Amino acid sequence: MLVKTFQAADMSEALKMVKAEMGLDAMILSSKQERRKGILGLFSKPYYEVTAALEQKPVQRPVYYQEKPERELSTKEEFQNSMLAPLARELRELKERVEALAKKETEKKEPAPVAVVEMPESEVKPFQPQREGAAPRTFAREDMEEIKKLLLNAVAAKEEKASKPVSFPVVAGGEMLEVKNLADDGDLSEEALELLATELRSEEVGADSIQALLELIRPAAELGEELEALRERLIDAFAGIIKCSGPLRLKKAGPRIMATVGPTGVGKTTTIAKLAAMYALNKGARVAMITTDNFRVGAIEQLKTYSKIMDVPLEVAATVKELETVLAKHADKDLILIDTAGRSPKDREKLEELKVYLESHPAIETYLCISATTRDREMNEIVANYSVLPISRLLFTKLDESESFGCIVNAQVRNKYPLSYFTTGQKVPEDIEVATARKLANLVLRETEQ
User: How far apart are CA 72 and CA 437, in angstroms?
Assistant: First the structure.
């Protein structure tokens, strides 16, 4: 970098000096007004001192042309670069074409392979050469038919030796199960039961549930029933281990009170709206809705919209006292549905607060809502942590978004809470149905209900 100081009578003149000598790319580092030193400097005029700098660019030195030393060419390179290379390439291509044509002619002359048919040894007669001078051997039509029959029998006997695999129904994921010939082992029942167990495991049904289901159909398997018949029995066997509560039954005296609880985002508010529409519009029951969810404005507004459409009253209860008040206000109703705020299953403090709400009235029945898309281990944690509340039923949502349904089986069998409803979408009130063991079995085994 070039640094230089300029002095002038005024600043403009100093800048002109910088521009003239260093150009427009110069940078001003400092500028100040000075007086000359000494006694005479007291009476002299002040001057301006400017320090400027210029970034010097490296000088591009000219590159002089230098001839590279020639490399000595090998004999092969000299040949390729010579006039003989094109001629050699043409001769090579011509040779390859001649060899290809010769090979093709040879293949045409070779006789086609003859199919060999095995004949039973009893039918094979020793060859008797024709005597010299004898008349040519002839065959009657009957002889030709007999020879043809012998050949066909030999082919059929050879085909019967091939063993054929036994095919079974398609399991989840579209995979076709094929096993070795069951007749070879002699134990048809165990093979069939193992196939059904594999089908259940593919739907993530727990080992304890699988064992309980298979024990119910084992007697029929040991009697030799076909696999399809055993699958039908397996569907019926679900009723032996899956407990369902059936629909909400209205009381003759006093309202039926139902509250939904569960993690955030599982669809509690929409489920409340579906049940309200089902009973108010389809069954003509007197219904009231209550929400304790004062955290989400959207939840209240959503229920207000359904309330207006169905002409069903909606109340907001922010405290336990307010909940007791609105329950008393609607004591003449047939059904009261309570929507609660979503709670994290790990937030013990919030769950204890919710417990106070739900135990404020002895008639409140608590339904735990769980998404069917929840993984099995997380579902166990949800049910275990929410068990501090007075849970009476399980309600599974978003079945239309789930890839497997074994977790529902596991949750019911493990925790003993009966299943109440299944929801499959956002339509109100269409996308809700009463949970049954057969419905769950058809979901797990990918069967269509008849």
Answer: 90
